[in-house]
Target: Cytochrome c oxidase assembly factor CtaG
Amino acid sequence: MGNLSSVSIFGFFANWSPFYMVAVLFVTVVYFLTVTKWRHEIPGNRPLKKSETILFIISMILMYLAKGSPIDLLSHIIFSFHMLQMAVLYLMVVPLLYFAIPSYLIDYIITRPYIRPVFNAMTHPVFAIIFFNGLFSIYHLPLVLDYLKQSATLHSLFTILLFIAAVMMWYPVFNRTAIERKQLSGLQKLFYIFMIGVLLTPSCGLIIFAQHPMYKTYTDPQAWLGAMTLCVPAGTLNSIMDSTNISGPQYFTNMSPLEDQQTGGVIMKVLQEIFFAVMLFYVFFNWRWSEGKDEEATTQRSLEARQKEQAYFNQFR
Model:
């Protein structure tokens, strides 16, 4: 049995994904050019806030750590890291992006003629919540996950689809749109977040309480080798297998496959509860603040109407 430091044998490219780093840097540069130099071409533009700058950089760092650092390599070796990756990407990074990207830019993108009808349909709360959780559950069926892990193309397409589904799912909660459209109330948002947690629970529960390892990718040496080609160059992988005594993923961890699987389910559930607690607090706080603001506005309007009424009657005295 080895330890986690053993993944260094797979080399720099497998551990740190330079191409993914370049992609993240490219997205970052395009984003900052769009919201600074090019923003004047977008209706409703405004200067970028300092908080948006910080949050976008944090989001990109988290995205790179989840998909470009050794965490991604480990996610193909140890199921616990796979679930950590899932939680960070879909339950943390995506919501952060709604606070990092100015609302006018999001509105501009989603109102394009070829995007708007699809976006409106996919962000309907009922569809959005079922679509993401359905994809998440399907992805973690043993037959599906093991199959996708054997194809770099299919695995990439499915994870991109899952990311898009997460973007759609969180839109009803965190959008700050100026577009006139039906919005969830504060109470509805609280219920919506609660339902996301409910729908994620069956998958986590099945993984946590299973009595045997469910995924060949993390137990069978041949299936594991196939999955490793997703992030390790074939030549490097063949060279390592010929020169070492690695027999499968168990070489890299002291946990049994079942313990690893159960730990992964617990990690997902615990992080979900933490992230959702923060979201619920944010939504509740903003709901109470907006209601208080509405009450103040109503009181002010009533006072102004009363003053006008009094002034009207005073002129006859």
About this structure: Residues 4-314 form one domain. The chain has a mean pLDDT of 90. The radius of gyration is 24 Å. The first helix runs from residue 11 to 16.
